[in-house]
Amino acid sequence: MATMEDLFSEAGIPWGDFTPGQQFAGYATQQFRPGPSPMRSAFWEYQQPLTQQWFLNQPTEAMGLNPYGSFADYMGTYGSPTDPMAPSVYSTERTRRLAEQAAAVAGLTGGQFFQYVDPQEGYEGPAIAQDVMDRLGAMTPGQRLMYRMRYGTGEQAAENQFQLANMMALQRPTTQGGGYYGRALGGAIQSALGELQGQLRLRDPGANFLDWYLQRTQRAGGDPGLGGFMARTPTGPTALEELAISNADLFELDDAAAAAAAANAQFGIGGNQI
Fold first, then answer.
1. How many of the other CB atoms lie within 10 Å of CB of 35?
2. Nearest CA to 208 among 90, 99, 116, 98?
3. I need a labelling partner for 274 at 20 to 30 A (CA). Which of 30, 80, 122, 201 fits?
4. How far is CA 212 from the centre of its chain?
5. Cα 176 to Cα 173: distance, rounded to the nearest angstrom
């Protein structure tokens, strides 16, 4: 059976290339001159969202790019017809679909993953459940390998799961112009997710946080939690309150309503403040 290094080599991907952080820093150094720069500061502020956009979109081959290309390759499409930030390419719906694929690939056991990408006769390990196969859907070879490494087995997999969930939570709905929540509201959202991730890790150190987040922010018939993590519906709670209510045990509170109130009090993001 092939190893991960074998699969990457067959795909023509250098094994042990520059880290994402090094690539981001190198690109920033090339784009901005030394000294104070508001644009450079803003660019660094969005390091994680930009990095997660790269991780999700580059391997799909939807933009005509090398699926294993560098951060500079990805950023080089700005302003072009294949701009990955174009609404038609980078919508909240598409982001969620790709994130679901990433979470599904990350959640496979080692045997299931290798059987998925390199089927072997006589495989006797556990089969992939049909609902997981439905979430995997049609994927390029690049998605299978890169999503597995970025969100499943890589050294930064847990952090990438959190950062991708964080990026989705920060997205403004397309009906509100898109982009990301920032400043006080953005900080409140990040604090909320950070607390939830920390509590989940204490209860289940090996939990797939991205999968956990996706399952708890899907709203039937409405905004699937993207760009609406803080939005209060006319007759219902915010998505954060829903998370607190459905996971009251993470806050060690028996009463679900008390859990929601505690979340709002701790994170300073009550409905009247939004």
1. 6
2. 99
3. 201
4. 12
5. 5
Q: Residue 5: what pLDDT?
A: 61
Instruction: Please name the helix (run of DSSP H) or strand (run of DSSP E) that holds residue 18, with its range, or none.
Output: none
Q: Are 105 and 148 in contact (CB under 8 A)?
A: yes
pLDDT value for 103: 95
Amino acid at 38: P
Count CB atoms within 10 A of the CB of residue 125: 12
Length of the chain: 274
The two tokens of residue 139 are 């994927």
Q: Give residue 34's region: left, alpha or beta (phi > 0; psi -120 to 50).
A: beta
SS3 content of the chain, % helix, strand, coil (to 5): 60, 0, 40
Rounded Cα–Cα distance for residues 196 and 258 (Å): 16
Q: Which string of b and e fits 43-73 if b means at least 16 CB within 10 Å?
A: beeeebbbbbbbbbbbbbeebebebbbbbeb
**Could you tell me the sign of the dihedral formed by the alpha carbons of 171, 172, 177, 181, in that order?**
negative
State whether the Cα torsion 185-191-196-197 is positive or negative: positive
pLDDT at position 133 is 93
The predicted pLDDT at position 273 comes to: 27
Q: What is the pLDDT of residue 160?
A: 94
The parts of the chain modelled with pLDDT lower than 50 are 220-236, 251-257, 259-260, 262-274
d(CA 190, CA 92): 18
Amino acid at 254: D
Q: What pLDDT is attached to residue 207?
A: 87
Per-residue tokens: 19: 């880290």
